[in-house]
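Final report, Chapter 2: Outcomes

The project's central promise was a pipeline that accepts a single protein chain and returns its three-dimensional structure in a standardized token representation, suitable for archiving and comparison. That pipeline is now operational. To close this chapter, we reproduce one record exactly as it appears in the project archive, with the input sequence first and the structure output second.
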Amino acid sequence: MIPRPVPWFLWGEGMSMGELRQVLADEGHPRWLELAAKVMREARDDQVWLFLPVERVASRHPDLAPRLGRRRPFWDYLLAAWPAQSGSPSRPSPC
């Protein structure tokens, strides 16, 4: 049996990278909001873009913000500053 790669920030979920990407690709999935917020809260900020496009994060920020805990001020600042810096949000290239 080949081990499934598990995101380090979701070690307690028992969910592989592929399963996480599948859930996050479908905003209608019942766990989308919960898992999107968890990624934004627990993953490094540069890793968030590997799972969520910045446009989706920006458009769903009002729904996500109450679930971001201590990371909320960071995301509030980043999403407010991003358009001012780049003219419009765009997906950063992954490292």
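Archive annotation: The helical segments are 17-24, 32-42, 45-48, 54-64, 72-86.
This record, like all others produced under the grant, will remain available to the consortium after the project formally closes.
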